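[stage:ingest] chain + small molecule (zinc ion)
[stage:ingest] validated
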Amino acid sequence: MVQLFRLRVMVALSKAQAATQAARLAQVRPELAKAYSVALARWMGDRKLLLLGLPIVTQGYRSAAEQAALYAQGRETPCRIYRLRKAAGLPDISAAEAGRIVTYKRGGQSNHNHEPSWALDVAHLQVDGSVRWDNAALLLFSRLMRAADKRIAWGGDWDGDGQTADETFHDWPHFELIG
Ligand SMILES: [Zn+2]
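[stage:predict] done
[stage:export] tokens:
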């Protein structure tokens, strides 16, 4: 128990990070936010899972302008991407990041573009403060999310058949609750 307590302290969120998490969760559908909270609590109660990092919501609601800027990544010139990002109130990104496709949905088409959002993206905060997108850790988290609410779809296994190899594309950090 002492060890568990120490681990919790080590990966605890700062006050500002906790406020950001609360704000992001407040912008997603209540049922989705509830399932996330249940899954997070289970994760935090498991010392082995906690070793993989602390789950965090990297995005809930996303405006159509933000979505358009993300869609431009890997498809438009860096100059055009920077202009779109500026218009959406987003900070600059590196040239390498600008050349990487990060979404297949145009502005307004993503399930993140609803208010409240139908989707949220998850990553894992590490002890050293870095953020990791680890597919294996996300798979483990997806099981807790699905256990909390069976209606939730995960981007690593869209059809929910327990297989991740039979998908046409993966969006590992992505969870959504539609309808
Ligand atoms: Zn997403």
